[in-house]
């Protein structure tokens, strides 16, 4: 009987894609895309049975965090997955929040974890913005330099035309200024 109880308990803990989608309030296809991206790019492994992936509470927390990062910071799915995977690998947290017996401790650990994640995301976001701003400044400076060079070129061309006119006038004046004894020429 104990074996049957264990099997029933395991079946009750199976969380399907549809249930995860309902809990996170996103489409089933989005859950599949998140899971597929996690598996493909980070080596994250989901349990599966003959009907497809099954999710644990930890998996759902990971997917929830990816959704939060993507929504709150406007990053791509790939970037959100990378950030969450990096945070999970680098986490110094030794006890998962859902395993702590005291709800206050669980909330404190989760809050600290969320705060650390947000700080890391803000730092990365700040670096990305700084990089984008530098690129935009370079582009603006490049365009301004090109405009100045164009204006200088126009001025030089106008000056060259003016000098040619002066040369023509000087040549014409020299032609008129023939010596008195060369009037028959």
Cα-based radius of gyration, to the nearest Å? 36 Å
Can you give the mean pLDDT?
78
Proportion of residues in β-strands: under 5%
Fold-level CATH name of the largest domain: Multidrug-efflux Transporter Regulator, Chain: A, Domain 2
Q: What structural class do helix, strand and pairing data support?
A: mainly alpha
Number of helical elements: 6
List the helices and strands and how they pair.
Layout: H1 2-12, H2 17-24, H3 28-42, E1 47-49, E2 52-54, H4 57-73, H5 77-90, H6 103-176
Antiparallel strand pairs: 1-2
Helix pairs in contact: 2-3, 3-5, 4-5
Describe this structure in words.
The protein is mainly α. The protein folds into 2 domains: 1-90, Multidrug-efflux Transporter Regulator, Chain: A, Domain 2, CATH 1.10.1660; 138-177. Helix content is 75%, strand content 3%. It is built from 6 helices and 2 strands; from the N terminus they run H-H-H-E-E-H-H-H. It has helices spanning 2-12, 17-24, 28-42, 57-73, 77-90, 103-176, and strands at 47-49, 52-54. A two-stranded antiparallel sheet has the order 1-2. A hairpin with a 2-residue loop joins strand 1 and strand 2 (52-54). Helix 2 crosses helix 3, helix 3 crosses helix 5 and helix 4 crosses helix 5.
């Amino acid at each position: 009987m104990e074996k049957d109880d264990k099997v029933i308990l395991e079946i009750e803990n199976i969380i399907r894609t549809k249930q995860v989608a309902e809990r996170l309030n996103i489409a089933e296809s989005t859950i599949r895309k998140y899971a597929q991206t996690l598996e493909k790019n980070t080596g994250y492994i989901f349990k599966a049975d003959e009907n497809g992936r099954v999710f644990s509470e930890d998996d759902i927390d990971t997917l929830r965090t990816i959704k939060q990062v993507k929504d709150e910071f406007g990053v791509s799915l790939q970037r959100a997955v990378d950030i969450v995977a990096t945070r999970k690998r680098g986490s110094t947290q030794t006890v998962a929040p859902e395993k702590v017996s005291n709800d206050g401790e669980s909330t404190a650990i989760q809050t600290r974890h969320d705060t650390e994640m947000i700080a890391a995301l803000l730092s990365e976001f700040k670096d990305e913005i700084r990089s984008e701003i530098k690129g935009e400044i370079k582009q603006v400076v490049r365009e301004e330099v090109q405009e100045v060079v164009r204006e200088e070129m126009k001025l030089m061309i106008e000056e060259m035309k003016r000098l040619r006119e002066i040369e023509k006038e000087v040549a014409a004046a020299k032609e008129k200024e023939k010596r008195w004894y060369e009037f028959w020429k």
